[in-house]
Amino acid sequence: MTVKIMNRSKHALPNYETEASAGMDLRADLDKPVTLKPLQRAIVGTGLYIELPVGYEAQVRPRSGLAAKKGVTVLNAPGTIDADYRGEIGVILVNLSDTDFVVEDGERIAQLIIARHERAEWKEAEELSDTLRGKGGFGSTGVK
After folding, report:
1. Which pTM value belongs to this model?
2. Edge-to-edge strand ranges of the sheet holding 41-45
3. Phi, then psi, of 66 in degrees rounded to 5
4. pLDDT in tens, 79-130
5. d(CA 117, CA 138)
6. Looking at domain 24-116, which CATH architecture does it have?
7. Which of 43, 46, 105, 106 is the most interior residue, by most CB within 10 Å?
8. Domain residues of the chain, as ranges?
9. Using an 8 Å Cβ cutoff, are 26 and 13 in contact?
């Protein structure tokens, strides 16, 4: 699929790092570094703007290495970029570690995944079909 993109950043376009990668890394586009103190959050710009076809969304997800090694993640993961949004892609980063984290210009801060989605049409009902699980949720299927 083809997606229109405007790159107003100082960095190359996002790309798939391997043939089987689902996501493309997003890079911080900053004039100066941003320091996130423990439990602090900030919207970090990417300098990227996209035009998705209707029926698709872009999901902004954490980078596992950044989360595991530094305790920094995407706060509203996954963040959704709708097909009719035309503003800059921003990433809401949060520092869940106990030390300051400095976001540098060009740093890979999140990944972007393009996904097809459906629009639901509600059909009101008085009852739903039975299943083995039923109303069980939040750990009801077991621990192991």
Report:
1. 0.89
2. 41-45, 90-95, 72-74
3. -65, -40
4. 999 999 999 999 999 999 999 999 999 999 999 999 999 999 999 999 999 9
5. 25
6. Distorted Sandwich (2.70)
7. 46
8. 24-116
9. no
